[in-house]
Amino acid sequence: MGFKFKFKPKVTKDRKATEEELKCIEETEEMLAKERKLPPASQQIRDLAVTHWKTLGAWLKGSQTITTTEEAERRWEICKQCPHLLYDEVNPDTNKKDGRCTHCGCFMNVKVHYAVAECPIQKWEKKCGCNSDCKCIDGDCDE
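Below the sequence we write its predicted structure tokens.
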């Protein structure tokens, strides 16, 4: 004995869409075309894992893992001006609408505090914590 539906919807009338329905479809398609989406979960997880791995490496080397308040604020000001910052996602830790980057998916108001974190589109760079303005190569301080 097979599974049977208790009811079967029937088409009762063939008709053309109304002007109102066509307008609604057009507006929805325009809205979806403009929608800024976050990257796939796999990419977001990878970025989070890389940032935390680099932070662990910096900590093991005795380097600074959390940036200064001034540097975090400088980074956040840059992020707030960026068109890729999305404010419609709620941070599960704070239960607030925090800015998320549409390139990496990170909660940028948190990411800006990691000394080894970098902007995915190079608007700000990491600070290695070696207390100088050197350019570190592959996480190794050149001084």
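Residues 37-143 form one domain.
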